[in-house]
Amino acid sequence: MDFANRNNTANKFVCPSDRQLALRAKLKAGWSSSKTNEPLRPEEQEAIISVIRRNEEIETAERQRVGRLVERVEKIKLHAVERGPNCCRLCGDTFGLLRPQRIICEDCRKSVCTKCSVDINIRYNNSERTREIWLCRICSETREMWKKSGAWFFKGLPNYDMPRSASATPMATPTGGGRAVQSCHGTPTRGARIKKLTIRVNDSSSSSSNASGQSEGEDELDGASSAKGNTSRETAAAVASAAAASRLQRDESFRLRAYGSIRSFIDGGERKLSNSFFFGRQQGQGPGQGQGQGQGQGHLLAGQDYDNVSMSNVSTVAQLRRESSFLRRSSVSSSWSFSDSSGSGNSATQSQQQQCPTSQHPHQQQQQHCRDPLLGWLEIAISYRESFHSLDCTMVRARDLPAMDAAGLADPYCKLNIITPEAHTKYTRWQRTKTVHKTRNPDFNETLQFVGVEPEELGNSLLYVALFDDDKYGHDFLGAAKVCLSTVHSTSQYRISVPLGVEDQYSNEAEMSQSWPNGKMLISLCYNTKRRALVVNVKQCINLLAMDNNGSSDPFVKLQLKPDAHKNKKHKTSVKWRTLNPIYNEEFYFEASPHDLNKEMLILTVWDKDLGKSNDFLGSLQLGAQSKGDRLQQWLDCIRLPDHFHEKWHCLAPDNPTH
Amino acid sequence: MAGGGDPKWQKDAADQNFDYMFKLLIIGNSSVGKTSFLFRYADDSFTSAFVSTVGIDFKVKTVFRHDKRVKLQIWDTAGQERYRTITTAYYRGAMGFILMYDVTNEDSFNSVQDWVTQIKTYSWDNAQVILVGNKCDMEDQRVISFERGRQLADQLGVEFFETSAKENVNVKAVFERLVDIICDKMSESLDADPTLVGGSQKGQRLTDQPQGTPNANCNC
C-alpha cells in the first residue's frame, strides 16, 4: 500500500500532513500505526521493564544524593547571619580597617569576609585566559551543588528527595519530631564557619564575655534536652531582672558552664543554634517583637525546631546577645549590663505568643539587606544639550562610601567616561572631579562635560562613573556605577541615585589611566614574632624615572622606620646599575613590637646613585597605620597575621617625606 | 540486555562515592556495534555474535577525571526502528551522545544526519555529541574513509573518532573525550552565566518539595 511506503520515506518526526492524517483515520489503527506494525512481545516487554527497574534504583539514589547536596547548601544558608552590608553575611564580622577585609561575592554581590569566602579561577568565555573571582561560601557551595546535581545542564535542579531526618529549613513545621540537633550531629558536612568560631572564641581576649553571650543559647538547649528546673528558673530570673532594667553580674560558675557549653556547641555541630543566635538578635531590634518565655520555654523546645523557638524568644535574650556581641567587639571585660533593655522589658511579659508572624521577620530583614548597596550611593544629574552635542554630567553627591583610613574616612573623587555599545570607552582621557577630602559622604556638585556625543549615541551608551580614594601612593577603588543614557532627554535634566558596585574592567581602565611617573614598587611585609621584628622585603621596582644621561638610572632603596622606638638603623638596598626596573629581593629587619607598629611609619625612598655628586631622588612610599587603602591594608594584615609575608604593589610618590 | 546480575555492575551502580553523574547515550543504526562498544568499555569484553538490543539497556561506570569521580550511566539503545518510541524517551536526560556508524556500512553513515535531527528534536539543546566510526579494524570491507567521517563531523561541528570495539581501539578515548567536553561545558556554563545559579531557585524546574527552598528570596 502506498501509504505505508510514503510514511517510511517521509520524516516521521514532523507533524504529518492533513492527507496523511485523514488516511490514518480511515485505517482506524491509531496515530502510530505506521511506526511499528508489530507490538512488543512479552519477553521484550519484560526485558525493557527490568532495565527500567534498574534505572529507577539509580534514579532514587540520585534523587537522594541531590537531596543531600541541596540540604548541605540549605544548612550553610541557614547559618548566614545577614546582618547588613557592613558585616560579613556568613559570620557577621564587621568589616573595617582593623577587621576582616571585605570581599564581594561574584554571584550574590554581597559582602563577606576573607575567611568565609573562597577564590576560584575561572576561564573567560572559551579563551585560555583565567580570572580570579571570589565567592562566598554559600555561592561556591551552590555552584558546586549545581555541578554535582546536574542542574547546570538542565538549567534547574532536578527532582530530589530531602533526607528525612533533618528539617533543613527555618519554615519547617514545628511538628517535626524531636532531636533536630542530633540529626545535624550526624551529617558529614561540617561548616568551616564552625571552625572559625572556635578560633575566634579561643583567640578572643574577652572570651569569657563571649562565652556568657552564647550561654543564653545554651540555656535553651539545656531546657530542650532535659527541661531542668534550675535552667528555666535562671532564664525566668533573667527576664525579671531585665524588666527591672537592672545591672546583672553573672556568677562565675555560670560562666564556666557556659564556656563548656560553647565547646559542645562547637563540637556538637549544633549549628542551628548559632543561626538562631543571630536571628534572635535581629529579632530584638524590631519594635515590640519581644515575647516573654519564662517557664514555657522548656515545653516549647522539647518538640520543636530550634529556629522557630529562638525567633519567638524573649527579647531580653536577644538583648543579651546583642550586648554580648557588642562586648566582644569592643573587647571590654566580662561584666554584663542591661542598660538599654528597659524598653524591651515592657513587652517581654506574655509567654508563648504566636510564632508564625515572628518567624517571617528575619526573612524580611534579609530581603532588606539585599537591597542595601554595598559600597554606597552616588547621585548624578545628567542633561544633554543637543545644539552643542554635549552631555553634562553633574556629580551631585555620594553617600556611605567605604572608609579608607584608620579614622574611617576617605578622600573620594570621581572619574567618568562613556561606554559605547561595543563596550569600549569613548574617550581615552577620563574626566575627573576634584577630590573632596576627609569624608565618606562627599558633596561634589561638579559638572563635567562630554562633547561630541551624538543624539543617537545616547540610546545605547552608558555613563560610567568610578570613585577612587585620592592618595599620594596610589588611588584605591571605592565604587563604580553605570547609568544608561537612553533615558536622558535634551529637554530636561535627568537625576538619579545609583548604588555603587564593585570593580570591573572599566574601573580598572580608569585606574590605569592615572599615570604614575615615578613608577611602582613591590613590597613584602612580615612581622616575625620570633625575632620581634618587622621584616621588609624590597622585591622590585618598575618604571622608575630616568635620571642619568644614558636614559637610565642606578636605583637603590633607603628604608627607615619613623618614629622609631627601638632606634633601628636605616637600611638601604644594593645599587642596581643602569636599570629602570630593578629587582632587589633584599630583606631588612626592623626591631619593633606589634604595638609599636601601630604608631610607626615605614618610609621607603628610591634614589639614583650618582658618583661624584649628590644622589637624585626617584620616588617615595610610606607604609604605616596612618596610610590609606591598600597600604593600610597591607600594614594591618602584617600585624594581624604575623609570620606571613604580605606582598603588594604600591605607587611611588614624587615628594620626599624625609626632607 | 543482560548484565543486571553482573556483580561488577552492581558494585558500580550502588557506589555513591562520586562527584558528578553524567548520562550518556549511544545511538546509531542497527548493528553498527553500539552494544559491543559499551561492553568493551564497561566490561572490557567482546563477542562477535550479534544479539539485537531489546529497546534499551544501560551500564554504569565510574571514572576518575580531573581529580573528580564521574559516574557514567551509559545508555545503549536499540538501533531498530521499532523501539524508537522507547529510545527517544531517554534522549532528554542525556548530557552526551555517542553517535555511531559502521565504516563498512554506507547506510549507517548516511543515517548520521537523521540521528542528529533526532538529537536536536528530543534532547536538551546543550547536549554534547561525538561522532564515532566503529569497526575500523575491518579495513578490507571499509567503505567510509576516515576523511569522509571527519568531514561530516566538521560539518556537524562535533568531534570525531574511529574506533574498534573488537580490537579495543579508541574506545576509552571516546568516553574520556566526551566526559572532558561535558566537564568543560559545565564549568563554562556556570562561569559564563552565574545568574543561572542565583535565579534558579525561584524555580523554572519545580521540585517535588517546594518548601525546600523558601529562603531563596535572597537570590543566593
From TrEMBL, chain A:
One of the GO BP terms on file: intracellular protein transport
Region named Disordered: 165-233, 278-302, 334-368
The RabBD domain, residue ranges: 34-156
Residues of the C2 domain: 374-498, 517-650
GO cellular component: membrane; presynapse
Pfam families, per the entry: C2, FYVE_2
Biased composition (Low complexity): 204-215
Domain of life: Eukaryota
PANTHER family tied to this protein: RABPHILIN, ISOFORM A
The protein's name: Rabphilin-3A
Lineage per the UniProt record: Eukaryota, Metazoa, Ecdysozoa, Arthropoda, Hexapoda
Automatic annotation (TrEMBL), chain B:
One of the GO BP terms on file: protein transport
GO molecular function, one term: GTP binding
PROSITE patterns xref list: RAB (PS51419), RAS (PS51421), RHO (PS51420)
CDD domains in the record: Rab3
Keywords assigned: GTP-binding, Lipoprotein, Methylation, Nucleotide-binding, Prenylation, Protein transport, Transport
Ranges where the record places region Disordered: 194-220
NAD found in the keyword field: no
Disulfide bond keyword on record: no
Domain of life: Eukaryota
Chain intervals with Polar residues compositional bias: 202-220
Alphabetical list of Pfam families matching this protein: Ras
SMART domains the record matches: RAB, RAN, RAS, RHO
Family that this chain belongs to: Belongs to the small GTPase superfamily. Rab family.
Protein name: Ras-related protein Rab-3
Species lineage: Eukaryota, Metazoa, Ecdysozoa, Arthropoda, Hexapoda
